[in-house]
UniProtKB/TrEMBL annotation:
Names of the cofactor(s): heme; heme b
Name of protein: Cytochrome b
Residues that span the membrane, as ranges: 31-50, 77-97, 109-129, 174-195, 225-245, 284-301, 321-339, 346-368
Binding positions (a ubiquinone): 197
GO cellular component, one term: respiratory chain complex III
Record keywords: Electron transport, Heme, Iron, Membrane, Metal-binding, Mitochondrion, Mitochondrion inner membrane, Respiratory chain, Transmembrane, Transmembrane helix, Transport, Ubiquinone
Organism this protein belongs to: Elysia ornata
Keyword Metal-binding included in the entry's annotation: yes
Annotated binding of heme b b562, by residue: 78, 178
Length: 373
């Protein structure tokens, strides 16, 4: 460990002891780094032609796509890159849950959860910027949730808006924050990697012993290149052939405060939390549940038995994990459904199970160890 810390940054990467048994699922972090770089670069070029002005904002996006050389490509890559970023961040977190990274690397895990939350905020701010119908009404609905905070709620909402409704001031500050936050994500990602390299990656059996490890380069660096190639193929297919498949048709209509969309919903990667919000009749209760649906990941390293059996040797743990994946997908689907029966009734038990699952997830490995010992 002492020798590892004395290396220069390049050697720190190439000579990093990596488990010989890790699979393709460990590629997620490097792919997320590549996607973050893509988002920053494409966002920088888009910001040169974007106009944060209520009158011209929607037209400026059209101008980027139609008139700016290569603008359509940068716009397509940026919009679809956000969706791909969340695809891989969910895969990365799922891998960490399955192989119990929150036990072996608690500080790294908690920084990762922070990156996830900041990424959600950045994506929400970016979704508002095109100033289409869903952008405007999504911003209105989500920011209005802050009014549920006792006593201070209405004042906080007005402060966020910069007025008495979503308007010019809101757009200005959302654009500024959306531009700045990716650099914060980059800094947190660097800290995430530094903390990870203190102990090295865990293996599927939860082993941190450096005896059974191999240098990162060339074996895993070439594996990462394969992942980058697959990602490039996917993003080129989306950018050139299916640029709008992950978007909402309502957002191709200019924002109109006088016409409410039939069904207001966020982007697909927020739908699980949106379904949890809608399942609780109380506004304050829904907001608390929405916040806890993400913040609960912080508590896994604090509440977990560190002597628990690794997932590879705990069949009930594996079954519990895949049940969570099913619940997550169902909540995402329900978040996209209209606010009517039977969807509203289905979301209530799934919300309860979502939070109950974390208690079971923490308890199962320890119980299994007692059972087989």
């Amino acid at each position: 460990m002492h020798k590892l810390r004395q290396m220069n940054p390049l050697e720190h990467l190439t000579a990093l002891p990596s488990p010989v048994s890790i699979s393709i699922w460990w590629n997620g972090g490097s792919i997320l780094g590549l996607l973050l770089g893509l988002q920053i670069v494409t966002g920088l070029f888009l910001s040169m032609h974007y106009t944060a002005d209520l009158v011209n904002t929607f037209s400026s996006v059209i101008h980027i796509v139609r008139d700016t050389p290569g603008g359509w490509l940068f716009r397509n890559f940026h919009a679809n890159g956000a969706s791909l970023f969340f695809v891989f961040i969910y895969l990365h977190m799922a891998r960490g849950l399955y192989y119990q990274s929150y036990i072996t690397q608690p500080r790294t895990w908690m920084i990762g959860v922070t990156i996830f939350i900041v990424s959600m905020a950045t994506a929400f701010l970016g979704y508002v910027l095109p100033w289409g119908q869903m952008s405007f009404w999504g911003a209105t609905v989500i920011t209005n949730l802050l009014s549920a905070i006792p006593y201070l709620g209405p004042s906080i909402v007005e402060w966020v808006w910069g007025g008495f409704s979503v308007g010019q001031s809101t757009l200005n500050r959302f654009f500024s924050l959306h531009f700045i936050l990716p650099f914060l994500i980059g800094g947190l990602s660097a800290l995430h990697v530094i903390l990870l390299h203190e102990k090295g990656s865990t293996s599927p059996i939860g082993d941190l012993n450096h005896v059974s490890k191999t240098p990162f380069h060339p074996y895993y660096s070439w594996k990462d290149l394969v992942g980058f190639l697959v990602l490039a193929i996917v993003i080129v297919l989306l950018g050139f052939f299916y640029p709008t498949v992950l978007g909402d048709p309502e957002n191709f209509i200019p924002a109109n405060p006088m016409v409410t969309p039939v069904h207001i919903q966020p982007e697909w990667y927020f739908l699980f939390a949106y379904a949890i919000l809608r399942s609780i009749p109380s506004k304050l209760g829904g907001v608390v549940a929405l916040a806890m649906s993400v913040a609960i990941f912080y508590f896994l390293p604090l509440a977990t038995n560190k002597l628990a059996t690794p997932a590879a040797f705990t069949p009930p743990y594996q079954v519990t994990f895949w049940f969570f994946i099913v619940f997550f997908i169902l909540l995402t689907w329900l978040g996209a459904c209209p606010i009517e029966e039977p969807y509203m009734s289905l979301a209530v038990p799934l919300t309860f199970i979502y939070f109950l699952w974390f208690i079971l997830f923490i308890s199962v490995p320890a119980l299994w160890k007692k059972l087989i010992s």
